[in-house]
Amino acid sequence: MAVTPLPPTRDPATLLDRANDHDRVSLARLLTMVERGGAESRAVASLAYRGQPPYTVGLTGAPGAGKSTLTDRLITTAKAGWPATEQMGADELSQVAVLAIDPSSPFTGGAILGDRIRMQDHATDPAVFIRSMATRGHLGGLSLAVPDAIRLLGAAGMPVVLVETVGVGQMEVEIVGAADTTVVVVNPGWGDAMQANKAGLLEIADIFVINKADRPGVREARRDLEGMLDLSILGDWRPPIVETIAQDNSGVEELWATVAAHRAHLLTTGEIEERRAKRLAELLRRTIAASLADRVEQVADGSLFDEQVARLVAGQIDPYEASGILLEG
Asked: Using CA atoms, how far apart are residues 142 and 165, in angstroms rounded to an integer?
């Protein structure tokens, strides 16, 4: 029996209702609105932030660490639900969403790598929603639209969102601003341990994964990580180290069980509310900064700005006085 297509609409509330009824086209349109920014994006955000956020798992690490393959394998494992832990019982999951943060095209600003190329086995699975998002030149590898997209996915009924970052070196630490559990992926022979420490990986990791564990150097990589953890100031949670061979699906179930254990720790201690409150405070700061940047562009695109530049050139005014005039005007 043929399915009658829904009439087209650009109303965010209608699209969100449809997304909650498992209409993936409507959800994709909402995410496009979020990425474009502007009034439509703000309208979507006003709906997305009303509900509870999904549980977000971030996978980060250097390029070539195998994050995409690991994420692909985690999708299948996550679909089976949260395994039981010492603190909490098992919990089923109806859907899993993935945000793959990709490099931006220098021509269109869009994501270079596509979701169907990355994770073809899940592209047609009705229980899985995969979306590639562009960094759009953002230094941290995470677009400002990513937190809005995560909240939107939660509002659309996605209980878990996996966020895989592009891998851009030291600025990868920004993933912690979007995730409840941060998984840092390294490889055997990962190089100077101090460089990893400088990258901030120790500060943000909730779980370490040594992927491609069939290669030489696994013992040395674990020793380096354990040594750095021994020298670090840790709270109630010491980041576990899990060995995986994502290509063979080896260790993936153990990794997901470790993520579940960290989730249970956050929920039972109440730390998850504290973490999310801090993330929202930081998001508000970034939103204010973005709004002020837009205001600067508006001020700079006018005759009054040109007039103040001319006065600066003529030595009639200083930059601070000029900026005061522009902001007051």
From this structure: 7
CATH of domain 52-269: 3.40.50.300
CB count within 10 Å of CB 318 equals 11
Does the pLDDT value for residue 136 go beyond 70?
no
Q: Does the pLDDT value for residue 169 go beyond 90?
A: no
- The DSSP annotation for 248-293 comes to GTBTHHHHHHHHHHHHHHHHHHTHHHHHHHHHHHHHHHHHHHHHHH
d(CA 207, CA 235) in angstroms, rounded, equals 14
Each residue's pLDDT tens digit, 224-261: 899 888 888 788 999 999 999 999 999 999 999 999 99
Q: Which of 47, 61, 58 is nearest to 156 (CA)?
A: 47
pTM of the model: 0.86
Domain boundaries, the chain: 52-269, 282-328
Please give the Cα distance from 233 to 52 (Å, whole number).
Answer: 31
